[in-house]
Design brief:
With 314 residues, the protein is mostly helical. The protein has two domains: 114 residues; 167 residues, no CATH class. The chain has 16 helices and no strands. Helix 7 crosses helix 13. The longest helix has 17 residues. The model has no long low-confidence stretch (mean pLDDT 94).
Length: 314
């Protein structure tokens, strides 16, 4: 869902981003690229209204953003990305992002995780972020539920019926979405849904549907783009459940689980915010309970892309 913003509201958001960038000296190259990307892809305004023409944010302009919950959350989210853009724990930037979220009245859980990152409380972050990812799918999740058993339920209780149904996708015509989905699993050597080692289909299905429909691979770059698109498409626990885990794992090189692969310095601001803009333009939320994966599976891939509001990848 695209969030409408006036030119003044857009520039106020950009000014917030610049404020995070300048929390400890001059803006970095990544900071400047983030502001340019948001100017271009999110607000779609001319370059002269971006970085070069920004002025300090007044209390009145801040209050205008705070009065609109959607704009406030977007501005606070972009401030968080700015605090993470350099791929290192920058206490000044993280603290500034937390303060601006508080000033905007944003009480989203990811703000607490930024504060924990600033003080080095990685143990709590590693415990909480997977819960946020699960909550983004289920609507609720507590530590007592057992995140490990939820993420990989088939290790204890394989689902032969699900595995058989998934394997049938391999027999669909090449041009269908279902066949592309099955091929995605085969190419990446992923365990078949329902079999031991496979992720919970409730999470893997929408996540990998984004990969397939958006054309993003499973490299660190592709995972960051998928997280950005998902956050814009599905607002529930968007930052704590998708963006923050992806940034920490694929840009900071921080494993959230003992089995995680990691990478460093893979954040591309232009690709990230272009993916975010694609997510805003979607008309169907693939994480919504009413999206029917199996009905979409038998349709042509391009038809499904059109139906959900995702143009074919460029």
């Amino acid at each position: 869902m695209h969030i409408p913003a006036t030119l003044e509201q857009a520039r106020s958001t950009l000014a917030i981003m610049l404020g995070i960038a300048a929390a400890e000296g001059l803006p970095s190259d990544a900071d400047k690229e983030c502001i340019a990307a948001v100017t271009d892809y999110i607000f779609r305004i001319e370059e002269q209204f971006g970085l070069a023409g920004l002025t300090p944010l007044s209390p009145a302009r801040l209050a205008t953003l705070a009065a609109d919950p959607d704009l406030a959350l977007q501005a606070a989210s972009f401030a968080a990305v700015m605090a993470l853009a350099d791929g290192v724990v920058n206490v000044a930037k993280l603290s500034a992002a937390v303060r601006i979220a508080d000033a905007l009245g944003v009480r989203d859980g990811y703000v607490d995780e930024l504060a924990r990152l600033a003080i080095g409380d990685l143990r709590e972050i590693k415990a909480r972020l997977p819960l946020a990812t699960a909550a983004s799918v289920t609507g609720e999740m507590s530590a007592a539920t057992g995140i490990g058993s939820w993420l990989r339920p088939y290790d204890r209780q394989p689902d032969a019926a699900l595995a058989t149904r998934f394997q049938a996708l391999e027999r669909l015509p090449f041009e269908t979405f279902g066949r592309a989905f099955a091929d995605f699993y085969a190419i990446n050597g992923s365990a078949c849904p329902g079999e031991k080692g496979a992720l919970n289909f409730a999470l893997a299905m929408p996540h990998n549907s984004v990969h397939v429909l958006a054309g993003y691979d499973t490299t660190p770059y592709g995972e960051l783009q998928t997280a950005a698109l998902t956050a814009a498409m599905h607002r529930s626990h968007a930052m704590a459940g998708h963006v923050l885990p992806a940034m920490l794992r694929w840009h900071f090189g921080l494993a959230l689980d003992t089995t995680d692969e990691t990478a460093k310095d893979t954040f591309d601001p232009h690709e990230f915010f272009y993916a975010w803009a694609r997510g805003e333009d979607m008309i169907v939320d693939l994480l919504a309970p009413d999206w029917n994966f199996w009905a979409a599976a038998i349709q042509p891939l391009d038809a499904v892309r059109e139906a959900v509001g995702l143009l074919a990848p460029e």
